[in-house]
C-alpha cells in the first residue's frame, strides 16, 4: 500500500472516530477498500453512485482519493446515511432510500460493495438492471462480492452477516454465476480481481463496462453466410468486424459466430447470430450450419505450456468441425488459422534462410503438433480448404499470455534480458492484416488447397523489438550490444542451447511470405507506431476509466509534443493533437483514440479553437508544448517574428492555462503541463525574447501551482535541456558537433511519470538543466549575461 494511501486511510478513520465510531473498527473497514484497484479502474471525473453505501466509508475514501469524482451514496438505513453525510468530504453526498428508486442517471460509475448477496436472485437482477440504466454507455460497474467457491470468504462473511443482519437470507454465487448474471444485465466483464487482506470479506471484485446497445443484425439480401470459430479471440474478433464492414467476395456477409462464452463478444458483434458452445458441439447442431459458404476456423487452445491437453483439445476440435461440415452442399471453403509452430525448425538448422511452405514439419511443442495434425486432417477430409500459417502476431485485444504481450511487459519493466541487443530475428504480422488475409484467401480461387505464410515484411531483430517495446511503453530503454564473439557463439552451439536462448541468437522465427505475395496479397509493413494499438488496449484492460479521460497537446506534430501524444494515447486516453503543421492530421490517423485540430496559436482563430478544447468538460490534461524559437539580435530579426514568438510562448500558454484552470476548478480535477526550458534560467543575448518567454513560462507556472487550487488540480512545469527536435533548425540555432541532446521520448517519459505521481512539481529534465539552474542562483546577473553572451557567440 502506498504511503499516501495509508495516510488517507488513517485520516478518514480519524474523521469517523471523531464522529463516534471506534477508531479500530473504522480503520479495519477502510483498510478493506481495494483503493489502488478502484483508483485504476474508475474514471477520474463524473458521477459515482455507491449503491448500499452504509456509513459511507468506501464512498468517502474514494471521494478523497479521486477529488474529480462526484460521489453519491445511497442506502436504506437513514441513521447510517446521516453518519456518512456528517463524515463526508466536499465532493461526496448521501441520500437515504432504496437504490431502485434513485432518480440519478448519467453516472460514470456504479459500485456495489458487499451488497448483492443480501438479496434473492430476482432482486439482484433488478439492482444490476437499475445500475445499467443509471450508467452512461461505456460506464464502469464495480461489484465487490463473495465467490461461493471461496470457502474462507463464504464462511467468514456468513458468520458476521448473520450477526449484523439476522433478517437477511444470504444468496452467494460462484464466479461463473456472477459473470452470467452480469452479462444478462447488459455488462461486459473487464477484470476479476481477488482482494488481498487478512480479513476475508467479499474479496472478489468484478470490473465491468456497460455494453452499448446493439440491435440484432439482419442479413442483407444475397449475403454470404459464414461461420467464424473463436470470434472472441483477438484475430477472430478483428475478422468478424471486417466481414461485417466489408463483406466477402463483393457481397455482404452474414457472420455466424461460434463462441464458448457469449459475454466475451465485443459490442459491435453482439448483434450477430451466435452459436454458444465449443467445436465438439457442432456435429449435433448441423442444421444450424445449413447455407454456410465459408468457415474461418480460428478457435484454439493456445496454452503453449499445456502439453498433451492442448494437443488433444485442438485435434479433437478439428475432427468435430470436419464431421459437422462433411457433405454440406453450400460449403465453398474452410480457412484454417495455423501457426509457425506447425513447421518449426530442427535443432541442427542454422536458420540462415526463412521457413517457407515446402519445409517439412519439425513441430516440437504440443500446440505446434496440434496445428500440424490439424492441417493433415483438413487435407485428408476432402473439404475445400486453405491454410494460413501465422508467425508472431501483435495487435489490439491480445491475451496477456501471448508471446508479444509478455515480452512487451518485460521491456516496459526494464528486464535485463529485454535490454540486450539480441541478434536473432523474427517475422511479425499485425492482427488486422491477418484478418484481411483471411478475407482475401476466402474469395481467391487459386488459394484452394494451398498453404501460405504471412508476415509484414523484413524480419526484426529481437534486440530491436525489445527496444521498440521499451520506447513505446515508456520503459527505461537502452540496449547492451553483445560482444561479437559471444554473438557468433550461438550458431555453433545451436543444438545445445535451450530453445528460448537459441531463438534469441538465431533467426529461428523467420518465414517467407513470397507465395502469398505472388497470389496478390501483401500485409501492410510495420509503421512507426506499430505497437501502439496493442499497448493501448492492454492499458485499457487495467485502467478502463482512462477511456473517459481526454488530453489536449499543443505542438503535437513533432518533437516532444508528438512523443507525449503517443505516450498519452498508449496509456488509454483520448488525445486531441493541436498544431499548425498539417502533419498532425497524419499522426492522428495513426493513433487510436486521437483527433487532430489544425490551428496556429499565434492567430486569434487558432487560439480560440485551442481554448474551446481546453475548456471542454471532458478535457482533464492540458499540455502547453507548442513553442517558437528565434536566434537573432533584437532589431535584426524578421519583422513580426518577436511578436509571434511572444504570442505563442507566453500569450497562448497563459490563455490556455487560464481556460484549463477554469475547467479544472469546476471539475475538481485536472493536470496542466507547461513547458519552459533550460533557457529560462539566464538572459541569452541573441535569444533575448526566447529566454525571457521561457522565464515567464517557468515563473508563471510555478506561481500558479501555489495558488489556492482544489486538491485534484495540479501544475507540472517542465524544463528540458537541449532536445533532438526541429527546434534547432527552425530557431536558427547551431548544433554543436558531438553534443548529446535529449531524445523527445525521454522527456515524454519523464512527464508521464509526473502525471502518475499525483502532485504539482517542476521537472528538470537532463543534468545540464539542473546545473544551469544552480549557476543562475550563484552567479551575479551582470556576469551571467556576459558569460552567456560569450558562450552563445562561441557555440550557437
Compose a concise summary of this entry.
The chain is α/β, with parallel strands linked by helices and 796 residues long. The chain has 27 helices and 25 strands.
Would you write up a description of this structure?
The longest helix is centred in the C-terminal third of the chain and has 27 residues, at 641-667. β12, α11 (366-381) and β13 (385-390) form a beta-alpha-beta unit. This protein has a seven-stranded mixed β-sheet, sandwiched between helices. Helices cover 40% and strands 18% of the residues. 47% of the residues are buried. With 796 residues, the chain is of the alpha/beta class. It is built from 27 helices and 25 strands. α9 crosses α13, α21 runs parallel beside α22 (641-667) and α22 (641-667) runs parallel beside α23. The chain starts with a helix and ends with a helix.
Query: Which residues form runs of ≥5 with pLDDT under 50?
Result: none
Q: What kind of sheet is the major sheet?
A: 7 strands, mixed
Average pLDDT over all residues? 89
* Straight-line distance between termini: 49 Å
Derived structural class: alpha/beta
Question: What is the 3D shape?
Answer: globular
Radius of gyration: 30 Å
Strand content: 15-25%
Number of helix segments?
27
| Number of beta-strand segments | 25
Proportion in helices: 40-55%
Main sheet strand line-up: 3-2-1-4-5-7-6
Amino acid at each position: 500500500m502506498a504511503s499516501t494511501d495509508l495516510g488517507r486511510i488513517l485520516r478518514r478513520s480519524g474523521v469517523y472516530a471523531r464522529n463516534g465510531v471506534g477508531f479500530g473498527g473504522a480503520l479495519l473497514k477502510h483498510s478493506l477498500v481495494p483503493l489502488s484497484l478502484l483508483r485504476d479502474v474508475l474514471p477520474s471525473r463524473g458521477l459515482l453512485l455507491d449503491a448500499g453505501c452504509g456509513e459511507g466509508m468506501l464512498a468517502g475514501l474514494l471521494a478523497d482519493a479521486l477529488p474529480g469524482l462526484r460521489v453519491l451514496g445511497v442506502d436504506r438505513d437513514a441513521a447510517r446515511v446521516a453518519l456518512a453525510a456528517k463524515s463526508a468530504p466536499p465532493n461526496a453526498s448521501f441520500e437515504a432510500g432504496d437504490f431502485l428508486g434513485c432518480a440519478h442517471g448519467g453516472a460514470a460509475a456504479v459500485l456495489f460493495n458487499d451488497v448483492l448477496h443480501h438479496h434473492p436472485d430476482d432482486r439482484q437482477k433488478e439492482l444490476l438492471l437499475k445500475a445499467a440504466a443509471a450508467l452512461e454507455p461505456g460506464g464502469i460497474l464495480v461489484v465487490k462480492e463473495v465467490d461461493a467457491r471461496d470457502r474462507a470468504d463464504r464462511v467468514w462473511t456468513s458468520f458476521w452477516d448473520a450477526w449484523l443482519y439476522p433478517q437477511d437470507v444470504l444468496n452467494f454465487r460462484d464466479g461463473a454465476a456472477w459473470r452470467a448474471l452480469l452479462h444478462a444485465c447488459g455488462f461486459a466483464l473487464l477484470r476479476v480481481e481477488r482482494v488481498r487482506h487478512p480479513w476475508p470479506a467479499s474479496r472478489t471484485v468484478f470490473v465491468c463496462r456497460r455494453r452499448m446497445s446493439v440491435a440484432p443484425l439482419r442479413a442483407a439480401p444475397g449475403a454470404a453466410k459464414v461461420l467464424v470459430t473463436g470470434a472472441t479471440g483477438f484475430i477472430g474478433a478483428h475478422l468478424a468486424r471486417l466481414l461485417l464492414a466489408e463483406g466477402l467476395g463483393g457481397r455482404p456477409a452474414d457472420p455466424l459466430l461460434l463462441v464458448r462464452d457469449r459475454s466475451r463478444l465485443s459490442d459491435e458483434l453482439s448483434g450477430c447470430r451466435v452459436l454458444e458452445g465449443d467445436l465438439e458441439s457442432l456435429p449435433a447442431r448441423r442444421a444450424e450450419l445449413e447455407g454456410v459458404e465459408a468457415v474461418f476456423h480460428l478457435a484454439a487452445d493456445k496454452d503453449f505450456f499445456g502439453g498433451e491437453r492442448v494437443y488433444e483439445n485442438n485435434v479433437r476440435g478439428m475432427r468435430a468441425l470436419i464431421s459437422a461440415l462433411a457433405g454440406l452442399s453450400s460449403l465453398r471453403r474452410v480457412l484454417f488459422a495455423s501457426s509457425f509452430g506447425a513447421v518449426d525448425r530442427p535443432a541442427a538448422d542454422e536458420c540462415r534462410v526463412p521457413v517457407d511452405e515446402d519445409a517439412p514439419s519439425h513441430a516440437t511443442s504440443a500446440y505446434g503438433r496440434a496445428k500440424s495434425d490439424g492441417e493433415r486432417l483438413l487435407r485428408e477430409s476432402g473439404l475445400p480448404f486453405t491454410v494460413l500459417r501465422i508467425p508472431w502476431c501483435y495487435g489490439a485485444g491480445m491475451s496477456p499470455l501471448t508471446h508479444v504481450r509478455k515480452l512487451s511487459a518485460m521491456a516496459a519493466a526494464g528486464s535485463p534480458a529485454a535490454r540486450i541487443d539480441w541478434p536473432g530475428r523474427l517475422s511479425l504480422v499485425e492482427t488486422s492484416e491477418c484478418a484481411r488475409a483471411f478475407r482475401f484467401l476466402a474469395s481467391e480461387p487459386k488459394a484452394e488447397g494451398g498453404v501460405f505464410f504471412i508476415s509484414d515484411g523484413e524480419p526484426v531483430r529481437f534486440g530491436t523489438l525489445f527496444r521498440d517495446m521499451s520506447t513505446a511503453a515508456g520503459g527505461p530503454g537502452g540496449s547492451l550490444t553483445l560482444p561479437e564473439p559471444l554473438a557468433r557463439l550461438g550458431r555453433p552451439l545451436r543444438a545445445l542451447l535451450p530453445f528460448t536462448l537459441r531463438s534469441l541468437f538465431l533467426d529461428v522465427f523467420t518465414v517467407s511470405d513470397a507465395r502469398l505475395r505472388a497470389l496478390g496479397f501483401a500485409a501492410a509493413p510495420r509503421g512507426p507506431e506499430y505497437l501502439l494499438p496493442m499497448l493501448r488496449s492492454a492499458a485499457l484492460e487495467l485502467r478502463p476509466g482512462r477511456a473517459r479521460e481526454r488530453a489536449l497537446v499543443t505542438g503535437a506534430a513533432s518533437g516532444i509534443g508528438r512523443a507525449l501524444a503517443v505516450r498519452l494515447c498508449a496509456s488509454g486516453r483520448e488525445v486531441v493533437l493541436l498544431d499548425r503543421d498539417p502533419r498532425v492530421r497524419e499522426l492522428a490517423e495513426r493513433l487510436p483514440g486521437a483527433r487532430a485540430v489544425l490551428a496556429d496559436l499565434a492567430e486569434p482563430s487558432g487560439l480560440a479553437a485551442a481554448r474551446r478544447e481546453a475548456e471542454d468538460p471532458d478535457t482533464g490534461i492540458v499540455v502547453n508544448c507548442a513553442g517558437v524559437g528565434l536566434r537573432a539580435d533584437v532589431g535584426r530579426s524578421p519583422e513580426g517574428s518577436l511578436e509571434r514568438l511572444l504570442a505563442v510562448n507566453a500569450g497562448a500558454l497563459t490563455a490556455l492555462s487560464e481556460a484549463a484552470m477554469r475547467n479544472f476548478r469546476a471539475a475538481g480535477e485536472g493536470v496542466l503541463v507547461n513547458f519552459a526550458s533550460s533557457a529560462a534560467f539566464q538572459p541569452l543575448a541573441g535569444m533575448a525574447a526566447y529566454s525571457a518567454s521561457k522565464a515567464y513560462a517557468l515563473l508563471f507556472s510555478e506561481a500558479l501551482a501555489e495558488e489556492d487550487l482544489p486538491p485534484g488540480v495540479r501544475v507540472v512545469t517542465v524544463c528540458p535541456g537541449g532536445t533532438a527536435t526541429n527546434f534547432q533548425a527552425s530557431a536558427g540555432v547551431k548544433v554543436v558537433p558531438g553534443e548529446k541532446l535529449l531524445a523527445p521520448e525521454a522527456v515524454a517519459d519523464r512527464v508521464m511519470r509526473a502525471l502518475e505521481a499525483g502532485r504539482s512539481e517542476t521537472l528538470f529534465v537532463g543534468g545540464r538543466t539542473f546545473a544551469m539552474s544552480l549557476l543562475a542562483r550563484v552567479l551575479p546577473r551582470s556576469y551571467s549575461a556576459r558569460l552567456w553572451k560569450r558562450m552563445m557567440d562561441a557555440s550557437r
